Amino acid sequence: MDRRTTIKWMIAAASAVPLGRLVPLSAEESARTAKPYGSDPKILEVYKPGELWPLTFTKPQREIATLLCDTIIPADETSPSASAVGVVDFIDEWISAPYPDQRTDREIVVEGLAWIDAEANRRFSRPFVALAAAEIAAICDDVAWVETAKADFVEPAKFFARYRDLTAGGFYTTPVGRNDLRYVGNVPLASFDGPPLEVLKKAGLA
């Protein structure tokens, strides 16, 4: 899975339908709540994951989440893997936030990780984190697209679409991810001489 394909997936996944129930949440997961930022958050402070609200991932969930992130965006010759730049921390923080959209995503992600581990055991008699690369790819290929997934994989494919979106969103908003996209915005300049001549010509302005 190359990063350019991932970007296309990210755009397509933005309209993903919420995942239906695959396995029930535990009582602890269902009851976990936290207070929102409030009306006057200190947005200039730097907070560590878990400082504002309890995080969701257990150690086994985090291991699955890490492997899945790095399957979606692996390290290559230009940049490190998704987990290496903190994407798993981002997803854990995101799904743990006490807001409606994040609560919905928490259910999707927790249930989806449980499904993918159960599917690994069903197919290969091993947990997901113990699978070979080809076995991981076989499962991911079956849930890669909601539109083409077989009936048994439609709901897991909705999870995969949302998880892929979160992974790509987390990665491509880091400095490493922006560099990988060759994004040059939000960079202070000592001076600005206007758009390059070739851009103006292409826009019909020169």
Name some characteristics of this structure:
mainly alpha
State the end-to-end CA separation.
40 Å
- For the secondary structure, the number of strands is 0
Average residue-wise pLDDT: 85
The stretches of 5 or more residues where confidence is low (pLDDT under 50) are: 11-27
**Total count of helical runs of at least 4 residues:** 9
Number of domains: 1
Q: Which band does the percent of strand residues land in?
A: under 5%
Helix content: 40-55%
| Integer-rounded radius of gyration | 20 Å
Question: What general outline do the C-alpha atoms trace?
Answer: globular
Q: What would your notes on this structure say?
A:
The chain is mainly α. The chain has one domain (3-202). The protein is 51% helix and 0% strand. It has helices at 3-13, 27-31, 59-72, 87-96, 100-124, 133-142, 154-171, 175-181, 197-202. Helix 1 (3-13) crosses helix 7 (154-171) and helix 4 (87-96) crosses helix 7 (154-171). It is globular, with a radius of gyration of 20 Å.
